[in-house]
Amino acid sequence: MTATRHDELETLRARVEELSDALRRSEARLATILESLPFDLWVMDEEGRYVLQNETSKRHWGEAIGMRPETALDISLEKERVASRWEENNRRAFAGETVRGEVSYDLEGETRHYVEIITPVLDGSRVRGILGVNIDVTDTKRLVTQIERAQRIESLSLFAAGIAHDFNNTLLAVMGATSVLQRELGANERASALLAEVDTACLAARGLTRQLQTFARAGPPERRIVALPTLLAETIRMMLRGTSTKSDLQVEQGLWSVEADEAQLRQVFQNLVLNASQAMQDAGEVRVRATNTALASMRGGKVGPGRFVLVEVEDNGPGIPPEKLGRIFEPYFSTKEQGRGLGLAVVQSIVERHGGAVFATSSEDRGTRMEVYLPAQ
User: Fold this and answer.
1) Of 111, 219, 270, 331, which residue is 20 to 30 A from 162 by alpha carbon distance?
2) Tell me, what's the pLDDT at 207?
3) DSSP calls for 168-206
């Protein structure tokens, strides 16, 4: 072999090694990019088996490489429903269609919403496989819902404030008139009893106006350190007096301090305990637990991270149907025939003004649990 030929081969070998290194670096960069994607990405071959799956996808759905969709599901949701949806969307993509849509899945005990896109991988006109992505839009949808709710609440708050002001003035006039009549009628027992009933009804109506005013009030709470265990015990005792409902209060030792408007906080737990008792028709048992909770991340897109006191109020009543659960905090919406639909709206308004959040979970025939997160000192 001549020197020239040898030099050419060495140059070629060096070039091949250089290109191989560049290819390995490119593959490593691509792998890093794929694993860094904050959404699911997967690729399926012509036989319908997964050949590529990033870490986000594995975390959500389990390891699926080499498997078909119907055998790859490793998630706590309705497998038949999900497998059927995946099969239909994949079939359309293998036929050459790009499939787009929004889907919902139950992951880790929470419903998550995704924008799903599945597109064919083409080699000329031949479909060699399909590629899919699932982009989590849960927080975006939640934010849009919160903005829409805030806009509705603002309008309702102005309306409620006006009604409360005018109604309260009318009640004061009626109560003043009954007081004058009682003095003038003197010993007329029947008339005095009727006027006393009118006065009692006016006081009850003033309670409604206070709820309206609390719901409509935009000012900050008057905060001070609240003895939460004492407040809870007193509230439970007062709200369950005269009923057959039992109670179980558990408070964690060394419960963190909460700085809040005591009167408003008392109103929160009065509403929750009363709702729980009424849900069980003034029987059963209301369970109240207060614990220290450190949230490492955002809870439900509403609160966290940070230190919170979590107060749970739970009943063993009939529960709330799923189609109604998402509406229970709406003003003037009630699951009770005689309900005014203000109690939980007031609860949420007060808790959020304190920088906290309230969540509801319920199962039909198994009861309802309300969770109140209050920022701790």
Assistant:
1) 270
2) 66
3) HHHHHHHHHHHHHHHHHHTT-HHHHHHHHHHHHHHHHHH
Is 262 in contact with 231 (CB distance < 8 Å)? yes
Closest CA to 319 of 371, 370, 369, 367: 367
Omega before 69 cis (within 30°)? no
Give the number of other CB atoms < 10 A from CB of residue 183: 8
- Tokens 């909460």 map to which residue? 258
Q: Are 115 and 137 in contact (CB under 8 A)?
A: yes
At CA 321, angle to CA 315 and CA 322, rounded to 5? 110
Give tens-digit pLDDT for 81-121: 666 777 888 889 999 999 988 887 776 666 788 888 999 99
pLDDT (0 to 100) of residue 76: 45
Q: Strand pairing of 246-251 and 110-123?
A: unpaired
Q: What is the DSSP string of 51-67?
A: EEE-HHHHHHH---BT-
Q: Are 335 and 320 in contact (CB under 8 A)?
A: yes
Top mean-pLDDT range of 16-20, 46-50, 57-61, 145-149: 46-50
